[in-house]
Amino acid sequence: MSASRPSRTAERPPPRADSTGAAGAQLDVHVDAEAVQAQVTASEELARLGLWEEAYQQLRGALEQLHGLDQPHNPVTAELDQLRQEHAAAREQARRDFLTASYNRRYLDDRLSTLLDDPSVTKAGMALAMVDIDHFKKVNDRYGHPFGDRVLQRVVAELDAALPDGAFCARYGGEEFALVLPGCEPAEAVAVCERARIRIDRHRWLELDPELRVTVSVGVAHTVAQPPDVEQLLVGADVLLYAAKGAGRNAVAFRREGGRVALAGPAGARRDIPQPAPLDC
Asked: Is 64 a catalytic residue?
């Protein structure tokens, strides 16, 4: 008679000698190779898409199955967490404009593309504003570029302070900035931009120089297209920005429901407001 088959329990390999618990007892770790490989594959795909936090969670789950990393004070866990923090810091630094600490143009382009599928955007649309510092060249010419850099930093601080949760500011180029307000209704977006304009106009610029006054012009566009046309939104905001400048600067320009360009707040009483052709966004 042939020998009886060993049980599945007997077939299981012995636990790893280096897998220990908090008290030094060996862990009985059963590794599901297919599950581990699935998590590693998912981690690689998420990393390829730039979803680093989700990729980290998948990779950590795979390592926990392999090495029992859920034990406290495990050196492998500590090293993985440190690498995660260092990577997050480096990634955040790469997103930021080195001078103003606002988000940079690369982050703006990437974030706008990911917002297309955001539930708040698909439901209520998205507003985007282009902000330009009025006569900024004169500031640089009179005071010098280092002084102009300080003005840029103060302007960004005031813009950020006016934004609601979920919105962000990015440096578009030079003295021009983009404000992105996902899920923001048109009237709300105009109100946010008008508050930002007022903050900058009323800021105590005399702390930098007694004769300095800084104002901004803003163009606010909104889209409810599905999916939103980001390029058209940028163009629409830029057109309205130049309408605000053409109407005398220090103003927020937007389109009413019928497509007519108007100015927010007290500037709305101005007589000569340019009326550029409407864009479909």
From this structure: no
